[in-house]
Amino acid sequence: MHHKYRLTRFIFVCFTLFLSHPAFAQEETPSQGWIEQQIDALGEHMGAAANFLFSIFFYDFGSGIPLIIAVLVGGGVYYSFFFGWLTLRGFKHSIDVIRGRYDNPDDPGEISHFKALTSALSATIGLGNIGGVAVAVGMGGPGAVFWMILTAFFGMASKLASCTLAVIYRQIHPDGRVSGGPMYYMEQGLAEKGLRPVGRTLAVLFALLTLGGSLGGGNMFQANQTLEILGSVSPVFKTYNWLVGLILAVMVAVVIIGGIKRIGNVTSRIVPFMCGLYVITCLLIIFTHIVDVPGLLVEIVAQAFNPQAAFGGFLGVMVQGVRRAAFSNEAGLGSAAFVHAAAKTDEPAREGMVAMIGPFIDTVIICLMTALVCMITGVYNDPEFAGKGVSMTSAAFETFIPGASYVLSIVVILFAYSTMISWSYYGERAWEYLFGLGSILVYRIIFVCFVFIGSVTALKSVLDFSDAMILGMAFPNIICGIILSPQIKVVLNDYWARLKSGEMKRYY
After folding, report:
1. In CATH terms, is domain 67-500 a member of 2.60.120?
2. Distance CA 412, CA 194 (A)
3. Rounded to two decimals, what is the model's pTM?
4. What is the pLDDT of residues 383-438, one digit of tens each?
5. Are 451 and 248 in contact (CB under 8 A)?
6. Run of H or E including 17
7. Could you give the CA distance from residue 256 to residue 421 in angstroms, rounded to a whole number?
C-alpha cells in the first residue's frame, strides 16, 4: 500500500508540473485583484490542458474517426465477438435477474441487483439523453439515430466486461462494506498477469481521472445546468442562485452521507420516476403521430449511411452529447463498475449481465424517444435551435403539449440531481483507493462544496478539463479489460453453462 501512495504522489506531482508548464501561463491583469487573477489563471491552465488532452483524444490519424471513439467502439466490438454475443443470448436472463428472481439476501454485497442498476443509470441518464441526442439529430439528420443505437449495442458488451471484473476483484470488509471499481481489477488482475507495475500505474491514473470527473462533470456541471433550467422558468432562481446552490448542496449531502445503501434507496425511486415521466411525455407526442413512426424508422435506417448522418451520429452523440453526459451511457469508461461492485451476489457474471442492460435503457429507449420527438415535430431542421440541444427538445415538447417544457425542466433537474449523488460515490471510491478510508469525510465535504460552487459560478474551462478527465478513463479501462478478457470469458462461459443446465437457484 505504501508503494501505491508513493505512486499517487508521483503522478500528482507530474500532473501539477504539467499544468505549470509555460505553455499554459497567463499574463496578469493589473486591474484585477489577486483572487481574481488566481481564478483566471486556474481557468486558463485547465482550459489549455483540456485543449491539449482533447487534441490527443480526438486525433483521427486522417481516418475521420477520433481516437477516443475508436477505442470505445472498438472495445465494444471486440468484447461482443469474443464473448459470443452473450449480450443477445443473455438479454432475457438479465431481465429476470433485475426483477429479483435470483436475489439471495445472504449473498455478499450491499445493494440488490435492481438498486445497483438504478444507481448506475442515475449517473448515465442525463443531459446527453435530452440535449446531446437533439444536437446529434440536428447535425447529422435522422440517420444519426442508427449510429446511436449501434454504439449502444456494442457498449452493452463493454459494460458486461467491466462489471464482471468489478465483482471478481472487489474487496469485502468484515462489516460487509464493499470497496470496488476498476482500480482493483487493474492492480490485482494485471498483477496476476505479471504486469504489477503497469496495473498499479493504470489504477492510480484511473482513480485520479475519476476524481476529476466526479467534481466537474458529475458535480459542478450538473448544478450549473440545474440553475440554467430553473432560470428559464423564472429569473428569480438566477437572482438567488446562492440559495438554490445551498439547497442543492444540502440535498446531496443528506444522501451521500449514508453511503451506497442510501444512494441505492434514493435512485431506486428517482430513476424509475424520472424515466417514466420523460418516456410517458414522449409517448404522448409520438402517439399523436403514430402513423408516421414506421416511416420515420425507415428514414433512420435509410439515412444511416449518408456521410452527414454518420458524422452527426458519431460526432453528435459520441462527442457533443458525450462531452456533456459522459458518453451518454458511459459504456467503456468503467464508471458503472464502482456501483455494480457493491451488488449482493456471489456470481460476477450475473452482475455483469445486469449492467449490460444500462446502455439499452439509456440509449435505445430514452435517446430514441428524444430523437423521434424531435423528428416528428420537425424542430431538428429549425436553424434557430442549431446546436441548442435542451432548447430544441423543449421546443419540440411545447409544439404538441403546451406547458410540457415545465415537465422537461423537472426531468432535467432530477437527472442532474441523481447524476450528482451517483458520481459522488464513484469519486468516493477513487478517493478511498488513493488516500484511504479514514479520509472519506474530507472528500464528501469537498464534493458538497463543489455543488455550491457549480451553482454560483461559470467555470467553463474547469468543466472542459473535467470532461477530458472522464474521457481519459476509457483508455486504462479498455486496455486492462482486453488484457483480462480471457479470464472474463471463462467466468461468463462457466456461468452460462450452469444456467442452461438448471443448476441456478431461483428464489421466485
Report:
1. no
2. 46
3. 0.83
4. 666 666 667 777 778 777 777 777 777 887 888 888 888 888 899 999 999 988 88
5. yes
6. helix 2-19
7. 6
